């Protein structure tokens, strides 16, 4: 069976979009249980300003608990928006960091207060230092199909940004369909343009399930050769653009889908469901992954 | 743009699986709002024993309110499990009825207390009378991919049942993936067998979103030529086999998907969202269609 790389983004993309701020100890327990469930790639945290994103305020402390214990068996990454964040990530022992930009000028401006071009200049020192330090860099691109401010984004624009990130030294490009509005024909149109220039092995897809289209989009990407996807346990996190709506595609839904389609994920679904049950308790809210709910109630 | 036939099953398959029993007046309001939103095919009720399924106990009363008002502009159907139910449906003014069986002996036994073969004998008088009366008959087949008691069902078994229903006089076969466990490769395998013998124009797909696979399965069926799908407003109804889990694919998710994929449905999504909001109030529970939730909160 062919193996799919799943990057569990619950601890970062998930928790960053939850109202309840977990203690570092709770996060450690979450990550421990994810590792026990078979997660092999985990986006752990983000080195950002604590006053801006308090959910990620304990990045160094969390890394100090997690990396010595699990760093040899699991790939951990973290978001580094600037060289200062990169240095903190390096000091914390990360072997992989991620930089992020978007295809849309308005989104990049609102999200990181830069133009897309400026975001590249700001990354360059991170790529230079990472190259020197032997650290892998992942490049996130947000709003690859549609932007909440600009609407439809041309695939050629996404390709341009992806190529620049690869030239700068990224080892993988994560295509983020940030607002979860895309349908399979749009993913097909995007990937047709991307895959003419970039091998599928360098591309990851990061889908949100806001309108319930994530699994259909993943099927489309899978058909076109993509073998790397992001997801969050239980569908943790939400959509900042639609209160109460679904955010990242749930790892349970993804693992259920991939396993039944004949792929290997390395993740034990029953064990993962128990992790999400723990998170429901800690966050004091119901998680809305379809597979999670069905499994939780059927056993 | 190509048009897709959507059969709205909320008033029957949806409400039958809700704990709260609505008044006939509330059901009439529901159906009125569905019609105003553009629904053209509505499964209205079921002529069953009131002591067995109290949610459908007002079939004749509801029909008497709905059919004279909307019967000329919308196709209404109802489930008729036996000749007695058929006579009641005919007396109520229906021009279309539906009979149901399954591919699995265990399921048919538990569900309608017959073998699959016996279910055919029991339908024959309905088909005979419908033929005499000029009434259309739709044939539902449950558990087309998997049975909660028997597990995996062979596509050839579903084909056999579908062919018998067509020979008996059904104008359309609805393939029901009753427990919502199937993934696209299974739908592909099923439809490959079915469509070798039966034209796609005679096949409807009825998917449940229990594990979040419904839209991906619909995309698969669409790719293979299916142009008729069942769904329920807001995802009304649930899964009798997993408490709290999703049931029928939500009409909102289906309409969102089809519209963005370039198909015509005739249904106004914003208007439909308001119908589901009304139903949330009447049923006193949150509906869990992804598109519904996103639309409700974004506007």
UniProtKB/TrEMBL annotation, chains A, B:
Cited CDD domains: DRE_TIM_HMGL (cd07938)
Sections of the chain in a coiled coil: none
Keyword Transmembrane helix: no
Keywords: Lyase, Metal-binding
Signal peptide range in chain numbering: none
Annotated InterPro entries: Aldolase_TIM (IPR013785), HMGL (IPR043594), PYR_CT (IPR000891)
Record PANTHER family: HYDROXYMETHYLGLUTARYL-COA LYASE
Name under which the protein is recorded: Hydroxymethylglutaryl-CoA lyase
Lineage of source species: Bacteria, Pseudomonadati, Spirochaetota, Spirochaetia, Leptospirales
